Amino acid sequence: MTSSSPVDVALIGGGIMSATLAALIKQLQPDWTIEIFERLGDVAEESSNPWNNAGTGHAALCELNYMPQGKDGSLDPSKAIAINEQFQLSRQFWSSLVARGILRDPSTFINATPHMTFVQGGKNVAYLRERYNVLKKQPLFHDMEYSEDSRVIHKWAPLLMKKRLKGEPFAATRVASGTDVDFGALTHQLFDATTDAGARLRLNTEVRSLKKQKDGTWLIRHRLLVGKTPGETRARFVFVGAGGWALKLLQKSGIPEIKGYGVFPISGQFLRTDNPSVVAAHKAKVYSQAAVGAPPMSVPHLDTRVVNGESSLLFGPYAGFSPKFLKNGSVLDIVAQVRPSNLIPMLAVAKDNPSLITYLIGELLASKSKKFRSLQAFMPTAKPEDWYLITAGQRAQVMKKDEKKGGVLQFGTEVIASSDGTIAGLLGASPGASTAVPIMIDVLKKCFPNEFAQWEPQISGLIPSYGMLLNENPAQASAVLSKTAEALAITR
To answer: What are its E.C. numbers (predicted)?
Structure first.
């Protein structure tokens, strides 16, 4: 069945990106028609599901990979600052939606959870000390604390220090204003509000192809997974927020902008405990340093998670390999993506990243006892009977052309848009969900240049700091952060 007239916006994928874009459009252009397609029986079942991600609310407060040490030993805070700036935009947007009654009680999707970094060994301690000294001068990081005192660190996170052997240097930083975000709950609430406002959500519906029509619209061929009933929908604009499958669909669209891109899927597991006595003893997200050759998304961390009002702890991730682009994808995904335009970049990535391959093989061969020992390095009192393994979501890291190397593996997210702005998609992973709002604003700016100038005053109403850099305006940063924290009920 084909729709008689085109919808204004079609969103493919029921995750936080599509949900955020839908919410933005409904605020900026409420008369536009929106149709959402999701393969599974509910939204937020892939990377946006709370058990498929760490829910950190990435603000670069604790993630060392956002501030690597240069070859000369210097530390550049620019990337950490940029990510924090982006997360502040997301927080402001959520707080505005709470004030408008679009999002429910903030505690249903965001909770105050200190962000910490914990390192061991003289070299790592020296690095963390210098990182603290650099970031402490930045307005967005002014409340960061640092200590090499076991008594102080024990007060911050007792499970890190109980029964820890003496002798080796260790250090920690802490930002009490960090958060835990349930992106699954947030995604559900955003879609609920969007569908209440007239959008149509098609569950159990798989998009099979995308074809540009002579009138400039896109013909979307889809089918129900139950009964295989086919259908067609026309849309003036298409956003592909389908995780790893975004690559496949953008390739099917035929837009030249997707040429040269590929994705490298990485799976993972976490150890989880719901034991109330263990969970009650730790309230923080504690990150450390990734193993040599490990991808940034594999940085070990011991996290407080709050899902449906219940707290748990996660430790991991333990990286693995699956050829699927989604947790519910196909084992042929990694082969089916190959095109003449991306073959050389993919081969170059394989050649230039032997340490990553070695790391993944080591992770795949790791026994349960070895995995547990890595938890005990973080938490010496951990007991095997309290913890169980869960499988996390798939992360599809971007591979792309590079003039010098032929191809590079990129850790981050990237918007791919057609030259005429009628279709766009998102590739990549972390810090994705936490920066969904600025990423989707970027999509609107790229794809709707004529309308965007008219929308900017409304965007500023939703996001007071839009268009400015908070880190360069200390007084404004303090005011915005305090107001947002109060609105989201995450004041400490």
So the answer is: 1.1.5.4
Nearest CA-CA partner of 126 in 114, 138, 134 = 134
Distance between CA 263 and CA 334 in Å, rounded?
8
Domain span at 303: 7-487
Q: Is residue 429 part of a domain?
A: yes
**pLDDT surpasses 50 at 1:** no
Mean pLDDT for the chain overall:
92
Q: Look at the block and give the residue holding tokens 């996660």.
A: 314
**Quick check: is 129 in a domain?**
yes
Rounded average pLDDT over 336-347: 87
Question: The dihedral of CA 156, 161, 162, 166: what is its sign?
Answer: negative
> What percentage of the chain's residues is helix, strand, coil (to nearest 5)?
40, 25, 35
- Quick one: CA torsion of 245, 246, 250, 253, rounded to 10 degrees? 70
Count the neighbouring beta carbons within 10 Å of the beta carbon of residue 121. Answer: 13
With CA atoms as reference, report the closest residue to 261 among 354, 144, 341, 155. 341
232-241, 267-276, 361-370: which has the minimum mean pLDDT? Answer: 361-370
Side-chain-facing half-sphere of 210: CA atoms under 13 Å: 29
The domain spanning residue 107 has which CATH number? 3.50.50.60
Kind plus residue range of the DSSP H or E element containing 135 = helix 122-135
Q: Are 113 and 286 in contact (CB under 8 A)?
A: no
Report yes or no on 492 lying in a domain.
no
Asked whether residue 183 is assigned to any structural domain, the reply reads yes
Q: Is the pLDDT of residue 451 over 90?
A: yes
Q: To which residue do tokens 């837009």 refer?
A: 255
Phi, psi (rounded to 5 degrees) for 193: -65, -40
Pull the structure tokens for residue 405. Answer: 């190397």
- For the residues of 371-421, what is the DSSP string, one character each? HHHHHHHH-TT--GGG-EEEE---EEEEEEEETTTEEEEE-SEEEEE-TTS
What is the rounded average pLDDT of the residues 69-82?
Answer: 93
Tokens found for residue 198:
């007239």
pTM of this prediction? 0.94
Closest CA to 185 of 283, 268, 103: 103
How many domains in the chain? Answer: 1
Confidence (pLDDT) at 157: 97
